[in-house]
Amino acid sequence: MNHRILPLLLLAALAGPVGVAHAEKADRAKPMNIEADTLRHDELKQTSVFSGRVVMTKGTIVLRGARLDVRQDADGYQFGVVTADAGKRAFFRQKRDTVPGAPDEYIEGESEVIEYDGKADNVRFITRAELRRYRGAALSDEITGAVIVYNNLTDVFTVDGQRAPATNAAGDAPAPGNRVRAVLAPKDPKPGTPAAAAAAPAAPSPAPVLRPSTSLGGDAK
Known about the structure:
lipopolysaccharide transport protein A fold, 12 strands, disordered N terminus, mainly beta, 42% strand, six-stranded antiparallel barrel
């Protein structure tokens, strides 16, 4: 069963709270649109469980995974947990707010579990987490860790590495944990700044001027 159109009652329940502050991004107030193979909805508890090839869109947000658990609190905020199939990772994508004329930017992330908090407006990537930022089609930044939390309102993210146990099974010194890894590309400097001048390619040196000589051996001694 493919739930391409949710019942009107469920869509109303999943719609964001009315009167969102102007400082918040538009995606937060958009309704969720969800496709899945099966759906189990509890109207009393305001919870929904979607299973099988789940695809959720909310404005520019896209979430994909094997299962999506959605609930709504008394204030109308939405919370979702996406779980991937065994051995795979769930997927997240969202367009970032950019100034007019600048190239579009997108945030993409993958992990075994993805938690979306509509009240705090942040996304939490858990286990084998990876976060990428694209400027246009070019990959700009890439970060990996055990847990990554990305705040949509402030564009601030935090990353935790996998902590190693105090001792290993043999009681020896602990093995090193998985450290955080990041590749951060510099932003394009603004025109007219010293950084822009330093980044600009240097002008080629003028070619040397050849002067004719009247003797084969150069100047006479």
